[in-house]
């Protein structure tokens, strides 16, 4: 049974075979490196600046880390889309390149659309890698020459920026056109509602909420005045002028007062004459006749004055009752008219509120559409997006494939492994014993001595006995 040391001895004994196999594999690798088509890789980088200020929004809300990662992944998928690949081909000028057209004819015989085939070819030469914990995307382009590799990477970078710009501005412009039509219709509705409200105001005179309040105040004042007029009319109907009142007014007249003054003076004179001359004296008789005449005159004047004052007072009372009744009727009519006016105004006011609400709703709708249209127009004309080309690709100096150093290292390693395997297989097919340790391991007995064979060539004899041919094993 072979041990590990036996295999090592076998490989060491057949080192030339290992070197030969390694050399052959190395030569094949050199031949591959010399004949394999060169591929060059150039890289450009994009910056997804999620913290850039947005000129449309009033407040900037930076993306969270998860949102940033999602945005990076979305941008990477967008770059890998056939639409961006087709645009990159147009930017690079490959859509009209005769070489690509011939390759398309050769591979598809015209069965596949040239744009689809070209997009597949461009995507086959693309590699997109999002940066770790950064906002940078690396775009790699691979081609048979350095210039094309750089051109592909730069074309995809620019196509990505242009595509992002279109995705941001084209929907906004489409919405702008749609909102412009909606705004025109909304303006027509505002004008129609305004004209209807204006005509209604001209017909009814209602302009605002104060009209109803003013009419209500007037109605309250009329009701108060009507109540006062009704009270005065009732008082006037209940007032009656008595005879005592007429006699009192007559007593206060100047004529009656004068007659009473004369009667008083005559009575005093009569009393003096009676005291001096007695009742039968002629002056006494004459004075008594004068007093009787004055008394008769007073009674007649009182009767005439009382009748005059009674008629005058009754006429005034009748006039007052008529005036109170007229005032009551007038106020009652005005109150009824005001009540009817308020009822009509209530109906008109409800109609006014409805028309006013329709106008306000149309105006708000118009203002909202106008604001949205302004925002969409601004967004449709924003000159930049949050995706920008950070670094442009330049033609690489050395090819990315085949990799000379890695290929040679792998070839030498593979050659050494294959040579070692070949040496072990040969040893297994044709085993050899090459050391006294191998004899012990194979036979399982201890070696008691070793015979040193002479090496080819002249041997220098150092002593009379010559070199020792037999060396005893150490005990």
From TrEMBL:
<feature type="transmembrane region" description="Helical">
    <location>
        <begin position="404"/>
        <end position="426"/>
    </location>
</feature>
<dbReference type="GO" id="GO:0004713">
    <property type="term" value="F:protein tyrosine kinase activity"/>
</dbReference>
<dbReference type="GO" id="GO:0005886">
    <property type="term" value="C:plasma membrane"/>
</dbReference>
<dbReference type="Pfam" id="PF13807">
    <property type="entry name" value="GNVR"/>
</dbReference>
<keyword id="KW-0175">Coiled coil</keyword>
<feature type="transmembrane region" description="Helical">
    <location>
        <begin position="17"/>
        <end position="35"/>
    </location>
</feature>
<dbReference type="InterPro" id="IPR032807">
    <property type="entry name" value="GNVR"/>
</dbReference>
<dbReference type="InterPro" id="IPR050445">
    <property type="entry name" value="Bact_polysacc_biosynth/exp"/>
</dbReference>
<protein>
    <recommendedName>
        <fullName>Tyrosine-protein kinase G-rich domain-containing protein</fullName>
    </recommendedName>
</protein>
<keyword id="KW-1133">Transmembrane helix</keyword>
<keyword id="KW-0472">Membrane</keyword>
<feature type="domain" description="Tyrosine-protein kinase G-rich">
    <location>
        <begin position="354"/>
        <end position="425"/>
    </location>
</feature>
<keyword id="KW-0812">Transmembrane</keyword>
<feature type="coiled-coil region">
    <location>
        <begin position="352"/>
        <end position="379"/>
    </location>
</feature>
């Amino acid at each position: 049974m072979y041990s590990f040391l036996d295999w090592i001895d076998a490989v060491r004994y057949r080192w030339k075979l290992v070197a030969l196999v390694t050399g052959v594999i190395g030569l094949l690798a050199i031949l591959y490196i010399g004949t394999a088509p060169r591929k060059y890789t150039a890289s450009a980088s994009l910056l997804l600046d999620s913290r850039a200020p947005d000129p449309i929004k009033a407040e900037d809300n930076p993306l969270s880390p998860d949102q940033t990662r999602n945005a990076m992944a979305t941008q990477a998928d967008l770059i890998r889309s056939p639409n961006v690949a087709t645009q990159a081909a147009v930017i690079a000028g490959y859509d009209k390149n005769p070489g690509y057209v011939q390759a398309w004819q050769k591979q598809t015989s015209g069965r596949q659309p040239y744009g689809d085939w070209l997009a597949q070819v461009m995507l086959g030469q693309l590699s997109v890698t999002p940066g770790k914990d950064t906002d940078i995307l690396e775009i790699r382009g691979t081609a048979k020459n350095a210039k094309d590799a750089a051109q592909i990477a730069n074309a995809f970078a620019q196509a990505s920026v242009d595509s992002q710009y279109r995705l941001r501005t084209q929907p906004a412009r489409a919405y702008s056109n749609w909102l412009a039509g909606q705004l025109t219709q909304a303006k027509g509705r505002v004008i129609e509602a305004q004209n209807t409200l204006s005509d209604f105001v001209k017909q009814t005179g209602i302009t605002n909420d104060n009209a109803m309040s003013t009419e209500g105040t007037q109605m309250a004042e009329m009701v108060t005045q009507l109540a006062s007029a009704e009270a005065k009319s009732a008082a006037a109907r209940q007032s009656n002028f008595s005879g005592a009142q007429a006699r009192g007014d007559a007593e206060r007249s100047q004529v009656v007062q004068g007659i009473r003054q004369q009667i008083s003076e005559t009575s005093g004179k009569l009393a003096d004459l009676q005291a001096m001359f007695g009742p039968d004296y002629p002056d006494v008789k004459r004075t008594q006749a004068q007093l009787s005449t004055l008394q008769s005159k007073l009674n007649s004047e009182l009767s005439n004055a009382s009748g005059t004052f009674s008629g005058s007072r009754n006429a005034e009372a009748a006039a007052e009752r008529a005036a109170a009744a007229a005032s009551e009727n007038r106020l009652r009519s005005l109150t009824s008219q005001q009540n009817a006016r308020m009822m009509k105004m209530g109906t008109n006011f409800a109609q006014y509120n409805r028309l006013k609400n329709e106008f306000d709703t149309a105006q708000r709708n118009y203002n909202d559409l106008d604001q949205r249209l302004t925002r969409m127009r601004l967004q449709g004309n924003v000159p930049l997006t949050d995706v920008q080309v950070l670094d442009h690709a330049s033609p690489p100096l050395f090819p990315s494939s085949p990799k000379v150093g890695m290929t040679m290292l792998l070839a030498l390693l593979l050659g050494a492994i294959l040579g070692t395997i070949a040496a072990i297989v040969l040893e297994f097919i044709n085993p050899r014993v090459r050391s006294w340790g191998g004899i012990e391991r194979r036979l399982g007995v201890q070696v008691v001595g070793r015979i040193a064979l002479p090496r080819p060539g002249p041997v220098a004899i150092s002593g009379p006995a010559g070199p020792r041919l037999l060396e005893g094993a150490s005990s």
